[in-house]
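Here is a typical sample entry:
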Amino acid sequence: MFKLEPKVMKISNTLKLIIAIVVSELAGIIGSVFTTPSIAGWYAGIVKPAINPPAWIFGPVWTTLFVLMGIAAFLVWKKGLDRRDVKIALGIFLGQLVLNTLWSIIFFGLHSPGGALVEIVFLWLAIFATMVAFYKISKPAAWLLAPYILWVSFAAYLNYTIWILN
């Protein structure tokens, strides 16, 4: 008798890296749909703190952060989706990507700095949870998220200040 074994498609590490970066960048692209129209309109007209970076800084910073997030996710993913801890860590990672996108929708799309301030607390906690989960699987993956959590911490301060000033 012949034994039929299911064919499992093996994805190369290069393709995994590309997918992880593209998925991460997609969160930024979706967020930019809500951000871009507000930059010259609503956002330009609100009071911002003195240390608010110029608007042109945000695109390159976020693009870089999304690349780092993708690399971090790849480092975890390549350990194998057959591992429960990898599945959980990547699930948390995807959750924080959703929260990242939601912040742009709330702040720029809905023009709600107060609502975005509440949401950014959950985003920060989700990033921290991702870092903890990633650290157990790949320390470099967790450290690649350090600039992200630092930038979101700064963004939370800016968000708070904008909410107070307006």
The chain has seven helices and no strands. The mean pLDDT is 94.
